[in-house]
Amino acid sequence: MDIVYSALVFLHLLGMAGIISGFLMQLITGNAKSPKVILHSALLQLLTGLLLVGLAEMGGGGVDHMKVGVKLVVAFAVAIVGTVNLRKPATNLAVAAGVLAILNVAVAVFW
Ligand code: HEM
Description:
With about 110 residues, the chain is mainly alpha-helical. It has helices at about 1-30, 35-60, 65-85, 90-110. It has 4 helices and no strands. It binds protoporphyrin IX containing FE. This is Integral membrane protein. Keywords: Membrane, Transmembrane, Transmembrane helix.
């Protein structure tokens, strides 16, 4: 189970990098593929985050439900902003997704 958990953390960190990369891509280059990078990475975060929580609970480790709840709400917000940004790309939407993802990194590290 340890290797599965580590693989999920690995993907979770790559997903975080994906959102930040997509946000910077859109901001700096305006590349048409940026919104897809942001949205797919946001969905990866939701999936891997929920699986991490499930595995931690199954392993009896338990998680801080308040912290996970806040991360879930912020990650949903990134996915919603990412969806709107895919339909009609806009710099302010990409910035919102990037800032929210950075907020979730802060929650993950400092909470
Ligand atoms: C934009 C979305 C997200 C970002 C940017 C993000 C970022 C991060 C980062 C940077 C870490 C590593 C922190 C550390 O090891 O100290 C982490 C860990 C974690 N995240 Fe997220 N996260 C996101 C969404 C979620 C969601 C939606 C959940 C679950 C509902 C979640 C659950 C977790 C858990 C359980 C860990 C702990 C892994 C461990 O170190 O054992 N994350 N997250």
